[in-house]
Amino acid sequence: MNIAVLIKQVPVSDNVSVDPETHALIRSSSEGMINPADRNAIEAAIVLKEQTGGKTVVFTMGPPNAEKALREAMAIGCDESCLITDRCFGGGDTVATAKVIAKGIEKYGSFDLIIGGAMSSDGATGQVGAMAAEYLGIPHISEVSSLSCGDNGNIIAEKRYQGMQVKIKAVLPALVTVNFGCNEPRMATLRSSRAAKTKPLATYTNAELCMAKEDTGLAGSPTVVTDSFEPEHAKKAEMLTGSPAEMAARLKELIDSEKGKE
Amino acid sequence: MNKKKIGIIGGGISGACLGYHLSLYDNAEVTLFEKDTIGGASTSKSAGTVCLFDDSINNRYWDVRLYGFESYLKMENEEKGSAGFDNTGTLVVATDEKVEATIKTGIALAKAAGYKGEYITDKDRIKEILPDISTDNILGAGYTNDDGYFDGTMISNTYAKKMTQNGGIIKTGVKVTEITKNGNKVTGLKTSDGGDYEFDAVVDCTGPWSKFTGEMVGLDVPMWHTKAEAFFLCPPGKKLSYTFPVLKYPYFYALRAGDNIFICKAHLSMDLNNPMHAGHWDPDKLPPTGGTDDYFIDFLLDQLEARVPGIVDSGLVSSWLSYRAEPADFRPILGKTPVEGYILATGYGGNGVIEAPACSRDLAKLIMRDESTPVLDEWTFSRFVK
Fold it and tell me: Do A173 and A140 touch, CB atoms closer than 8 A?
């Protein structure tokens, strides 16, 4: 099974700058890491590849330094990678991003399955996977908790839906997004990190993808971010001191005083 | 009684420890300024190893090492956990005769002070202590189960608490923006929250920030930044079946961190002429995690394959980069400077947790009584002027 894995490089901390005009994150202002749910996607892909053969190719759209995330994904076990990067792609919303990613995947080759994380830790829209599937004309299953190969070239996914645990079968090719924590991601090792330096990494700019300007970046975004701000934290912490009995009594007071409040 | 007013800039191990030692003097009025949290910057990335014998500090300064170790044991005896002591023991490997001689001298000093220590040449015994080690190409190893490693952040906060109990004042979240002078004499400092303070002496305990702090008084602090690149490894099988000791080689060291293993390049192996090792950088731009160089992975892989092959296939949990404040001779810069009233307590390199207690004790004596000590005479700023 040839599997494409979609990952995103997200800021490590919340100490990241925001463009005052576009309200987009300035990703180069903070150290990046692989989006946590995408680590689960990488693990799911590698497990399936180990069961079925084939290869895993990891894709990301981002600034040039997103190469670091791809090298790490290959150190974890992906076979090849593709960096989709161009200034004209920057600042795009989920629609514009999904279009670019879909184009990049089509250009790279054919895949039986595409796996991504259900949600990113920065934007957290959970939309790009489903949108990319639509642009690729393939079925998608989102927020999956487990994934396995079925018979006759299909995939079986489990997820929670309206309080029920459901099992869904999809004919391949298909796209699946997996929940954070759905598996235990393996780690890169020193040996695999060294080997990853020489694994194939393709770079696609718009010269390779030939997308119209009105389909990319801000111009290709039907949504507009009007503001980005850090929410105010109204709650405060009270440090309890004293003997265990005194702290327990105070804790009970606090709990009793909060009962009935929203 | 006329009190001497001292302002300390920096609340890491250096500043917190000095603040405590100054607060022991009845005629000292001490205020410490820390722009973030106590022990939260480079101190928090310290391994905290205070070994009874290794090569991190020359055996000539045995009394400095012993005072630090026993200060932290005393802390732990007063309140368990207040120094974050993990009593894992230490294994120091002799890769050549020079290292072997250093280890044997250190063992003799430790035993003279009443601690256990043995030099082991029986390779089976070494593998009993650390099963994942390779005993090829080693002469032997020094071992004690009396030491281990501490927690620099815990220690800094314990010193800070003791300092305030003695009447010292600590201001966190406050950045020093200006050091005021009258001619060539320091008169005080100003802070980001609008504070304006008068001091008889101002002490720079800012470590990797010392070059920037020194510029505020027109002083060029002769210091490099060397990179402290560290990884956290998850051992094969996720949990070791033995207590991983502090492990010391000339080029790297390792210790347990929960179920993981913390591993870092040794600071004495840094080459100040190598731009991959040393330079002048901005510590404020350090990321909280990551930032390590690719060459470090190659270095570590080669070292582990040769030295500790049992853990070479560990998972990489995380990594971080810190900057050590390193003078050219790898010794701290302590004491008076050409700017009157401006004192340095910086350049500890990778040895702040080891050296801060003895150096702070001596610096407090210098500041309060104008009495120097042999260590201060040796680690003085004026050695660079010569």
Answer: no
Chain B interface test: which of A189, A190, A191, A239 (most B C-beta within 10 Å)? A190
Residue A234 in this model has a pLDDT that exceeds 90: no
| B86-148+224-326 has the same fold as B4-44+153-222+329-385 | no
Q: Is B314 within 8 Å of A190 when comparing Cβ atoms?
A: yes
Res A24 pLDDT > 90: no
Domain boundaries, chain B: 4-44+153-222+329-385, 86-148+224-326
According to the model, what pLDDT value does residue A127 have?
94
Per-residue confidence at A239, pLDDT binned at 50, 70, 90?
A: confident
ipTM of the complex: 0.82
Q: Taking CB atoms and an 8 Å limit, are A194 and B314 in contact across chains? A: no
pTM (predicted TM-score): 0.87
**Position A249 confidence tier, pLDDT thresholds 50, 70, 90:** very high
Q: Is the peptide bond before A173 cis (omega within 30 degrees of 0)?
A: yes
Q: Which residues of A touch B288 (CB under 8 A)?
A: 12-13, 31
Q: Which residues of chain B have pLDDT under 50?
A: none
Half-sphere exposure of A148 (CA within 13 A, CB side): 6
Comparison of pLDDT for A262 and A106, the residue scoring more: A106
Tell me how crowded residue A13 is: count the other CB atoms within 10 A of its CB. 11
Nearest-CA distance from B120 to chain A in Å? Answer: 30
Q: What region, left, alpha or beta, does residue B84 occupy, with left being phi > 0 and alpha being psi -120 to 50 degrees?
A: left
For residue B160, the distance in angstroms to the closest alpha carbon of chain A comes to: 18
A125 CB neighbour count, 10 Å cutoff: 13
Please tell me the total count of domains within chain A: 1
Question: Is a pLDDT exceeding 70 seen at residue A28?
Answer: no
Cα angle at B3 between B1 and B8, to 5 degrees?
A: 165
Domain of A44, in residue numbers: 3-215
User: For residues B46 and B64, what is the distance between their CA atoms, to the nearest angstrom?
Assistant: 18
Is residue A107 one of the residues assigned to a domain? Answer: yes
Q: Looking at the domain that runs over B86-148+224-326, which CATH code has it been given?
A: 3.30.9.10
Residues of B with CB below 8 A from A188's CB? 315-316
DSSP A182: S
Residues in B closer than 8 angstroms to A30, CB to CB, are: 287
A31 contacts in chain B (CB < 8 Å): 287-291
- Cβ separation A30–B290 shorter than 8 A: no
Does the distance separating the beta carbons of B294 and A190 come in below 8 Å?
no
pLDDT tens-digit series, residues B314-324: 999 998 899 99
Q: Which fold has domain B4-44+153-222+329-385?
A: FAD/NAD(P)-binding domain (3.50.50)
User: At which residue do the structure tokens 């393939």 appear?
Assistant: A138
Say which CATH number the domain at A192 has.
Answer: 3.40.50.620
